[in-house]
Amino acid sequence: MTGLKPTYQIETPPEPAMEWKDYEQLILSEWQKLLDGTPAPTEKEMQHFLEQYPSMVPGAFNLIGCESGHYPWLCGLISQPILPSFDHRKPDFMWLSLNSATIEPVLIEIEAPNKRWWTESGQQTERLTQALDQILQWKMWFKEPHNLDAFKKMYGLDLATPTKRNFRPSYLLIFGRRAEANVKPGLIAKRSLLAQDDVTVMTYDRLNPNPKAHNLVCMKIKNDRGDYSFKTISVPATFTLKPRLAICRSRLHDLDIAINLNNHISKKRKKFLIQRLPYWNVWLKETGGCGTIKPVDEE
């Protein structure tokens, strides 16, 4: 590395990004208001909240095994992702988690927090059964080789991982509240048996913002007559610009719109971030991302 110089120029913003400790406090305050509100929040309200605060959603850095040091592909959470030719219920969210050996799509199903785990007699409720069956349908879909190939092509995973890596989907169900799920000692043990090697089941009480996800956005995939693109729908208040994230960010549309929509980013900072987006896209085109000697923030 001796003698190498960065190929990019860093500019100092007029205002720094919100510090993580302040952002975390903001998220948790809003989260408790929503979760403990009366009436209980709907699934649609939970979906919207998690779209705005993707660091709350587990799985960005692997759901199975040790937490990865790699950013997820596209540097963000995908809301209501498309599974090619799958005509049943789509996942509510998906991370395309990566590590040095594995591509791990994390498919996530959420239900309203007031959904019950158990009947009065301690039997699994019909809604819980349906949610677990939904995950089974996704697992069966991935078993077909042509579905797997179409999925990789749609999400550009050949670009994400030019070297050969294992492909291992995992699944997460977020369902109900801890107090109801654990209402009787015997039900705690029973609930633990719902988990499998590739399936994790948890209550909303387990969710917490992950500081490693401070730079991750939320997006939706758009299908324009077979041409797929990724529309950014939210960025965090802690959002910064990094050379090593330029490749992922270059594949996202409407980053500028998402920045403008965040009420926790000042006008001065919004203007700075939006003005710098074209610079990083040009830098990436000219250098191919070379010259990122270390992962440095714009500021």
Give a structural overview.
The chain has 299 residues and is of the alpha/beta class. It has one domain. The chain is built from ten helices and nine strands. Strands 1, 2, 3, 4, 5, 6, 7, 8 and 9 form a nine-stranded mixed β-sheet that branches. β7 and β8 (227-234) form a beta hairpin. The longest helix has 21 residues, at 267-287. The two termini are 23 Å apart.
What fraction strand? 15-25%
Low-confidence stretches: 292-296
Oligomeric status: single chain
Query: Helical segment tally?
Result: 10
> Would you list the SSEs in sequence order as H and E?
HHEEEHHHEEHHEEEHEHH
- Gross morphology is globular
Distance between the termini: 23 Å
Mean pLDDT: 89
How much helix, percentage-wise, in residues? 25-40%
Q: Tally of extended strands?
A: 9
Q: Number of domains in the coordinates? A: 1
> How large, in whole angstroms, is the Cα Rg?
20 Å
Classify the secondary structure makeup into a structural class. alpha/beta
Profile the largest sheet.
9 strands, mixed
